Amino acid sequence: MEQHYDILDTHGGKPVKMWTRGVPVEQEAKEQLRKTAQMPFIYKHIAVMPDVHLGKGSTIGSVIPTVGAVIPAAVGVDIGCGMMAAKTTLRADDLPDSLGKLRSAIEHAIPHGMSPKTRGHKGRDEGSWMSPPSSVDAGWMQLKDEFDRIVQKAPKLRHTNNYKHLGTLGSGNHFVEVCLDEEGFVWLMLHSGSRGVGNAIGQHFIELAKTDMRTHMVNLPDQDLAYLKEGTQHYDDYVEAVGWAQKFARINREVMMQNLIAAVRRVIPKTFETHVEAVNCHHNYVQKERHFGREVLVTRKGAVSAKQGELGIIPGSMGARSYIVRGKGNEDSFTSCSHGAGRTMSRTEAKRRYKVEDHVKATEGVECRKDVHVIDEIPMAYKDIDAVMHAQEDLVEVVHTLKQIVCVKG
């Protein structure tokens, strides 16, 4: 059978299998992968997706299987970040002449972004609810009791913006989109995670792991590879908290989708059905799975589960195509695929290199923000999504190709 991946020389560490043929990989990301491969509890090998790029602690776009330990910084602070998409029975001809009206309705229905005045933590976070609707209350009831148990062990987490962030988008690369598939059907798609409370949980346990390493004088190739050992209280607490944050993220997307559908119904009078085909998948998370005959912890940092027949979402960038895919169950990748196109440059570099007119041209035909504050999300800051998809043809098959026509970013 033809091998579709390359092997990175890790200088004595565990193997690293890379599905990156035809896509650029920065040297810094390779060095980061080599450091992660040195950790003694890596199981079999690390799998690297074609959207791989430098991250904090571990590369984004990597799948890290472990036995007996977990690396909180590898999971990251945007715990449970992922995608949700739902096909509707609407067609392109059913959309309003003014897509700006549709975008405005979505922006009013889903809190997003963060105003400059609140970045100093003064006043209300503009990206949160002032008075959460009933959909948020219903979602929070599924989360409240377990959250109360978690904050008994970590009281500072109670003061996070948890309840009022449920059903909100956030900022950065998080988005809400209206898309058309190859047959002209309308899809609703969004990208977000566990918001402020997930970030706080991630930061809390990253610091606990670093403290544990100092206490036991463990020598690490990178301090952000600090880990929690199975059988310890911190490990058990982390597994509970990270599982809750992943549940929050899933419900967060479900609540947003409810409000997104309601917003579209207010603009489009025609009766339509939704969730004709629906996908809700994480791409920053950890969970127990069975691979190569053994139960292991699989950390996907910027990667999507692609078990045999499993549906997933691989978004492009603003102005690029996105894909609904079906997994092929490739064990070498620990049944995973990429979570997107992957950045080719930092946000700072994108802002330095490009101007508003570049962004306007690159997002032609998409109803979205065209201002200086979203230049860091310009399509040219990302890898070519077609090359990314080609590099992982043995991991997934394309079910639908989507092109966005409306994009809301924080």
From TrEMBL:
Mn(2+) 1 binds at residues 78, 174. GO terms for molecular function: DNA ligase activity; GTP binding; manganese ion binding; RNA ligase (GTP) activity. Its EC number is 6.5.1.8. It comes from the Bacteria. It catalyses: a 3'-end 2',3'-cyclophospho-ribonucleotide-RNA + a 5'-end dephospho-ribonucleoside-RNA + GTP + H2O = a ribonucleotidyl-ribonucleotide-RNA + GMP + diphosphate + H(+); a 3'-end 3'-phospho-ribonucleotide-RNA + a 5'-end dephospho-ribonucleoside-RNA + GTP = a ribonucleotidyl-ribonucleotide-RNA + GMP + diphosphate. Its cofactor is Mn(2+). Mn(2+) 2 binds at residues 191, 283. It holds the Pfam family RtcB. The active site is at 339 (gmp-histidine intermediate). Binds 2 manganese ions per subunit. Residues 112-131 are annotated as: Disordered. GMP binds at residues 173-177, 283-284, 315-318, 322, 339-342, 409. One of its GO terms (biological process) is RNA repair. InterPro entries: RtcB, RtcB-like, RtcB-like_sf. Belongs to the RtcB family. Monomer. This is 3'-phosphate/5'-hydroxy nucleic acid ligase.
